[in-house]
Amino acid sequence: MRDRVGERSAQLSLGLSCLGHMYSHLFAPIFYVVVLTLDTELGLSHGEAVGLIVAGNVLYGVAAPIAGWLGDRWRSTAMIGLFFVGTGGGMVLTGFAATPFQIAAALAVTGLFASIYHPVGIAWLVRNARTRGMALGINGVFGSLGPAVAALTAGILIDTWGWRSAFLVPGAVVLATGAVFFWLVYRGSIVETREDRRPDPPATSRDTARAFAVLAVTLLCSGLIYQSTQPALPKIFSERLVDVIDQGVGGVSMLVAIVYLTSGAMQVLAGHLADRYPLKTVYLSCYVLQVPFLVLAAGCGGAGLVLVAMIMVSVNVGALPAENSLVARYAPSRWRGLAFGLKFILAFGISGFGVKLEGMLYDLTGDFWWLFMVLAGIAVVGVAAAALLPTERREPIAVAAE
């Protein structure tokens, strides 16, 4: 009976962890679509309007280690519940904001609570997963669904009811999910667990130090590329595809959604590969593939731009299952939440200034050529760093008996 309860709790935990991952990626891409109408309404330049989310993006990463530490010391389930309520509430506040300062403050609140998911939710997922790479890949699909759903629904809601509804409606959905989550915890359907269902053999201290030194560089590189690309895609599509899409926000948001849906499918494949091949090989390959497609994006236009963007974003986020497996592999289980939190200081905190980089380069040049060339150079640095990861010996996956 106890095993049955544990199995059911693990399945519900995996499902709600996936939903949480999608929700954690809603607020920023919604805002980047909203910017297409908000800059005119507020009388700001593109760079100034995009800059309103910088504090939220920085908190999204910088607060992650604190959230991870609390998840390690307190209860993961309590922290996940706080994530749902705080993130949903922050989005609702953003929908009611009236001035640039209020919008920036509400986005900061949203980023603060959304920061809980990655260190706590992914550590929670890893503990409950039997085939870690595949679980992280499926979880990654939902992470990619976040920007896709955000872009698509934001475009529809803005065209129908205005920009405020783009935050109010999804914010209410996140709050409702939080209520369901607390109910499942209260009735014992989801229980707290501290042990991995599929533990790894311990890594040497030398390999651990080397892996985290390398990851400190690669995480910053991949984060800068991701954070700069997100606000750039709606704007570059609206400028370079004027003959392909109509003048409304809906057409642009549809293309952005297609890009992120495609990248989600890539994470399933990448997770499958991470379970069967050395993590270093999978991770390094994703970095190598980013370079040429970032260069192509600098000068590409028309339908070709959409294809290039799909591949460019797919290989960027496709590295995540291997990346998260590397963190889980080299971090002691009792400190895993903190380790994932430190990861997201780099991936979403410091690299959150990638949004500022995108706005600054666009305002200076009036185009995106220099942005994507700079990002290609950052990807080259990531390739050089990833090549220095420890070489691991992979053994067949030992899946625990049902």
CATH-assigned homologous superfamily: MFS general substrate transporter like domains
Mean pLDDT: 84
Please give the radius of gyration in angstroms: 20 Å
What is the name of the CATH topology? Growth Hormone, Chain: A
**Computed structural class:** mainly alpha
CATH top level class name:
Mainly Alpha
Total domain count: 1
Helix content: over 70%
Order of helices and strands: HHHHHHHHHHHHHHHHHH
Tell me the overall shape.
globular
Tell me what the CATH architecture is: Up-down Bundle
Report on the architecture of this protein:
- The protein has a single domain, classed as MFS general substrate transporter like domains (Growth Hormone, Chain: A).
- Mean pLDDT is 84; it is low at 394-402.
- It is globular, with a radius of gyration of 20 Å.
- With 402 residues, it is an all-alpha fold.
- 80% of the residues lie in helices and 0% in strands.
- The chain has helices spanning 2-24, 27-42, 46-50, 54-62, 64-73, 76-96, 100-114, 117-128, 132-161, 165-186, 205-240, 249-276, 279-299, 302-318, 320-330, 336-349, 354-365, 369-386.
